[in-house]
Amino acid sequence: MQRIMTGNALVAFLSVVLSLILGGLLIAVTDQEVASASSYFFSRPQDTIAAAWTAASSAYIALFQGSVFNFEGDTFTRMIYPLTQTLTVATPLICAGLGVALAFRAGLFNIGAQGQILIGATFAGWVGFTLHLPVGIHLLLVILAGMVGGALWGGLVGLLKARTGAHEVILTIMFNYIATNLVLYFLSTPAFQRPGSTNPISPQLDATAVYPPLLGASFRLHWGFVVAVLATVFVWWLLNRSTVGFELRAVGANPSAARTAGVNVSKGYILAMAIAGALAGLAGVAQVSGTEKVLTSGVAASFGFDAITVALLGRSSPWGTFAAGLLFGAFRAGGVAMQASTGTSIDIVLVVQSLIVLFIAAPPLVRALFRLPAPGATRAGKGGSSTSTTPTPASTGAAA
Amino acid sequence: MKLELIGITKRFGSLVANDHIDLVVEPGQVHSLLGENGAGKSTLMNVLYGLYDPTEGEILVNDKPVTFKGPGDAMAAGIGMVHQHFMLVPVFTVAENVALGNEATKAGGMLDLQETRTRIRRISDQYGFDVDPDAVVEDLPVGVQQRVEIIKALVRDAEVLILDEPTAVLTPKETDELLGIMAQLKADGKSIVFISHKLREVKAVSDVITVVRRGKVVGTADPSAPTTELASLMVGRSVSLTLDKKPATPGEVTFRVQDLTVQAANGQHVVDGLSFEVAEGEILAIAGVQGNGQTELTEAIMGLQDHVTGSITLNGNQLLGRSVKEVIRAGVGFVPEDRSVEGLVGTFSVAENLILNRYDDAPFAKGLSMSQSAMEQNAQEKIAEYDVRTQSAQSAAGTLSGGNQQKVVMAREFSRPLKLFIASQPTRGVDVGSIEFLHRRIVAERDGGTPVIIVSTELDEVLELADRIAVLYRGHLMGIVPGTVSRDVLGLMMAGMPADEALAQAHDVQGGDL
Amino acid sequence: MSTATTSAPARSASDATVRSWKNPIILSVVALFALLVFAIGAPGNDVTFRLSEENDPIVLPSIVVSAPVIGWVAALAMIALAALAILRTRSGRKIPVWVLAVFAVLFLIAFLTWVVGSARTPNVALYGLLAGSVTLAVPLIFGSLSGVLCERSGVVNIAIEGQLLFGAFAAAVAASLSGSAFVGLLAAAVAGVLVSLVLAVFSIRYVVNQVIVGVVLNVLVSGLTGFLFSAVLSEDSERWNSPPRLPVIEIPLLADIPVIGPILFQQTIVGYLMYIAVAVVYVALYHSRWGLRTRAVGEHPKAADTLGVNVNRMRFMNVLLAGVVAGIGGSFFTLVAVSGFGRDMTAGQGYIALAALIFGRWNPIGAFFAALLFGFATNLSNVLSLLGTPVPDQFLRMLPYVVTVFAVAGLVGRSRAPGASGIPYIKG
Amino acid sequence: GCGAPPAEDAPAAGGSSAAAGTDYLGCIVSDSGGFDDRSFNQSSYEGLKKAETDLGIQTNQAESQAETDFGPNVDQMVQGGCNLIVTVGFLLADTTKEAAAANTETNFAIVDDNSIDLPNVKPIIYDTAQAAFLAGYAAAATSETGKVATYGGINIPTVTIFMDGFAEGVSYFNEETGGEVELLGWDKESQNGTFVGNFEDQAAGKTNTQNFINEGADIIMPVAGPVGSGTLDAVIEANAGGKDVKAIWVDSDGYETAGKGEEFILTSVMKLMGDAVEDVISTDVDGEFDNTPYVGTLENGGVALAPFHDQEANVPDDLQTTLDGLTEQIVAEEITVDSAASPQ
Ligand SMILES: Nc1ncnc2c1ncn2[C@@H]1O[C@H](COP(=O)(O)OP(=O)(O)OP(=O)(O)O)[C@@H](O)[C@H]1O
Ligand SMILES: Nc1ncnc2c1ncn2[C@@H]1O[C@H](COP(=O)(O)OP(=O)(O)OP(=O)(O)O)[C@@H](O)[C@H]1O
Ligand SMILES: [Mg+2]
Ligand SMILES: [Mg+2]
Hints:
- The complex is a heterotetramer of chains A (400), B (514), C (428) and D (344).
- By secondary structure, chain A is mainly alpha-helical.
- Helix content of chain A is 69%, strand content 0%.
- The longest helix of chain A has 30 residues.
- Chain D contains 11 helices and 14 strands.
- Chain D has a 6-stranded parallel beta sheet with strand order 2-1-3-4-5-13, sandwiched between helices. A 6-stranded mixed beta sheet of chain D has the order 7-6-10-11-12-14, sandwiched between helices. In chain D, strands 8-9 form a two-stranded antiparallel sheet.
- The chains are: A mainly alpha (400), B alpha/beta (514), C mainly alpha (428), D alpha/beta (344).
- The site of one magnesium ion has 3 residues of chain B, from loops.
């Protein structure tokens, strides 16, 4: 933590700048105006450069306006609306990212957040639109159901890994596909459909089953964000201050030493995957009971996959993941606005995001690009701090 | 071939591992390097072998300066090296290992293993190695693996052979055979650089001895010099090579192992029908060459092995079938043989490692919550008590030197009341000063009335600590002998001779050995 | 001295085995299942497997079998084999490999007969079922070969998906612009290498966790191709995204052999390259100097280093080579399967390839068959849905994934990865 | 290149806004298929673009990539001051309803959904089964092998309504003529059949089509957006291999829009969303917006069977006459084409 805040802060910042520059180049190169201006580049190069600058900067301004602060908004509400939108999108990213990060700390590479979100959302959604319960209890039950759903789906992977030694990467990938088809199946049954319709979309969740808005009805931000903050605190406590976290981290960092010290490694795998699943399930709840309020097969969007990058960027630490979730939430929220207002495809956001993760993971590269001196007396050749907080689940998984 | 190192200096960051070392290896000579842990012997050899670039200095082969960009260049120049940790690919056959990097090929880069097999057989015959080219290396005993390493060097026509601590994992018999091979090689005109901590061997085979201390050559010695002189030259002060300990006063027998059998995953009985007991206040050493079931025996006691039959009782309570946690809670302290793999979590802090198997006991845990202050306080106490050299209690354990890592493990295990203490290789790779300290702690634990089991492949350590010695060979007990037994008897038992026969035979040949 | 060795207690062969009951138990359960479902639950009708079409040069008669007969015969034979396995295990001997092989074949025959027999139309074109399976497996096979090349030399390759996708994209664009499918093929290989280059530079040069680089590369390629797709390709798809197809090259006579002819001898160059690549990688890996060094570098890099093998250069080259292979596999999507690039059109096949690689135990041939199994399961579910089954389509589509889970959890279990896979090599 | 630069003071390119001088803003939000889905998003989008050129209005669009984008996108459009927002697909129903209730000045039109009853929302729905019925009849009448096939993207009503109508058409043919044409890939009774599982995997569309051809089908109707392209690839290959196989396109006239294999497209089941969208916009521009659902039928031309184009020569002589007769009967409700997914 300390190190990330101080020594690497500059590298992180430069990584973001570098990625934005590369993304901007991509926007400029593919822009129509730039293309037409470049046809006479040699007679008037400034046109090309101006067009390129306009293309990239207008896209990024739109991105900023859509994610942080809209200075063209006519009311204060509209001005800060983008920021609340960022927090809304960040909510499921943070929850699922925590799940991926926690599993990572236990030495497991959890690619299955997508499926866990879906199953969690299905459980939560079903409780939300089928049961009719009093205020408070209903929402609690929805949250619980979502976590149980995710925990089952994740825990099953942990169980299979512990019992048979099957590789969790394969298992989680397969479980994602199975979950998608399972949800599609549920949505084709009357129990999950609206009365009188066979569309694969569930009824709206009861008013008692949804997260109340956090800042009033004019914002989409809901209490799910607070739950995400609480989840971050909880995961931080769990990993750093609890016996369970101690066990999980030991299993992740060195399974043989953990076993020798009396930790039940199999139980650790199951537990880690179940908790990871529960956190992803919480992301499902944020979607089904917070933002969307209905269950569809697309309710998880691609949050489960984005969560992997979020966790990696956050170096698998709870608050790192939280921060990465906010950043990616901003990119996503801003990206939608950017696409709507400038027509720049939101895919550029994926490019920028992944470049950021790559650059941050390789500080020597960024330092070399910006001609910064190497820090202190770190021995050459070592990846150094960049990879230290993340175990290598691929190797731990393949051993045994 | 004449080999000359002139002014070799090697720095790792601020650490100077080799400091202007000069060394000459004449043809047909065995040149030994002596020095304590971390003196810089391996570093020097790695420089010579092209694995490290020297910071300064020059290497001359037959009076001509050479630069080695990698081991390939060194091998081409006629230098071969047998590393202490074998550099063999475990899943490859002998032939594949020998061929690697020096492949005989047919058209299109296809391997010609037949050619390699022929060469292996030729060398095998010449030196009486008896190595099957098609055996898979991981199935071979260490002694044979070492011969494979030597074959690798000879196949490449090495004129200078570097042997870095080659005898550490061998039985006395295998050691004798190796020394024989060295004599043959020398007779063939090859030069050998020999590194060993075992002064007796060094004296027996060397033509010249160079002593290294803290990266510098501190002198040369004649092989006929007395052992104590060599030792004090190494360490820089006079050393007492013996530990003074009171005779044991064994109490009640509280730990019993009966008819213990452990099956490995491949079905082999790695521990076979073992029975022994340990009394309070005595040290039972389990001797034997690495890989004869010691690891499995200690793991079986700890509940770390799966297919175990028989009985293990501590104070009348059955330990077999219990989980590791239950065994630990029953008061068994355990120092595993490989501290970095089983004893410590390298990325965890020293403080965390000091409670690695007590994290959920009071005072470190209240319910699910752990107490940082209790952990911190415990760390400060133990670091002071055991003189652990670490920057802080929060440093990652992996950054500590081997001796200090071992102190962390010991400190952890001794920090709770024990009913049984088991230590595997308690001082492997640990320097002389630390060894002395750790040995004294172990004896103190014995004197406090705890039954102690020490597993060690180092005869010196076994003889120093043990009140009684049990020798394991291929999972069988060769017998239990008193701690005062002679080195030769142990050597025979470690090679698979039952105790009574060994005692008889050693009596016959007494005085004829080294 | 000689007495020392002879007096060592000799171990008898019989007590030296742990009796593993895993296989007999699995066989028994499956055999029982076969009895209940395939025999007792057999549909009463005949089942027809067609081997050729009427206007094929060589027409084979269809195989018509009675579902109950096949069900009972196979189930009883499987029970017999399971019993044999139990007996062998009880007496402490190994179960011969042929028992497992015959068991698997019987299961497959009984299962096929049962599912097709239960369909509304109990009549299936076996040649089509198999040909479709191979088609679906082609990109998987290229992908898993790419994985083999990387992992065997010690680099985990999660970026197969990205390599395939970028290969598909580059092939579509280059072929459209140049008007030549072969230029597209070349571009695909180059694109695969580009992805590999990033993987290699970051994971080998900068020692970034290989899994992280792989995952991020997939996102990067997905974003990049998606962006270019909407910004460039869709704007003028006539110019950018209408690649010509690779021609199908028929090998005379051989292509006319029923069932296997179209699979083996009626392919595009990519199809032939696939068979060649599997064979070449297999032979080279186990019988060439390059293969020996590759495996050494992946198992014990330090040992290879001390013998003068440049570990990181070896890894670098292999990762790049893997890019060529996966890139060509990617071209299958746009030059063979369909004509044109679509957003994220590889649809996770790179991950399935990864599964095939592990299921195939890091062996090119194993990966080949694992990929085929997956292709078969997928196409079987396709065919079943069109023949008409009572199983909802969502469950049919789960079939390949469920099969993979069972295969990985039940049959493969703890598989042994190359010793140094995923671990960067830092010299000195 | 080094062409000549435009004069410094030339007006910015693409000044369509100046042309009609209206400041009416028509907007559209796609569902997650995007505007290039060769299906309802694309048709609706083209309707809006047509309104732009024909009526001189301004337009804006927002493409959704995931369901989470719906809310923000609709919101962006509302904030952008759109007069009318077309939302595409039933998945946008809740979002549309919410936005419409909150922004009563803005008008909405939603394609393929009839669940919203608000004064400022106009549902646009289609009785696609009617046109698909004709396609099924035409396929059955044209098939040489006596087997025809259909498959879908995902098992949802807007897809299965095509398949139901097609199935009805085939069985009507069998009843009327005593034929025994078999339909593969869809069982209307159990509402179960062949689906790709998405609207993207063209290769899966191709494999499925090859399976159909292997089982003897010679006319295949994919109801799967861009996946149908895979069917065309398979059909082109099969014809190159000496078979006589045809495809039936859906949504638009594939002869004009599919971009390849036109010569093998027997006909298309057209769901003319573009026209409806343009219509709704033009009534709104005229200030005559109403919220009565628009139901596209054979009668009002909202759905139709495309001409046979190149396939004219391959269909039975009297088929067009028969189809015209069937159309009349359906319009006159003498034949009812029922589907579980038909608009109620
Ligand atoms: N790669 C390295 N990086 C940093 N320091 C190193 C490295 N290799 C060795 N050292 C340090 O250099 C010193 C000399 O180590 P070396 O291995 O040469 O000792 P040695 O004499 O072989 O000891 P031993 O008797 O234990 O084998 C030690 O302090 C060691 O910690
Ligand atoms: N990168 C490093 N950083 C710090 N210490 C190191 C490093 N590499 C090695 N060491 C230390 O240097 C010492 C010697 O390392 P080395 O690997 O050479 O072992 P060795 O026992 O001397 O091996 P050999 O005798 O087989 O050459 C060990 O104590 C090890 O902990
Ligand atoms: Mg050394
Ligand atoms: Mg050493």
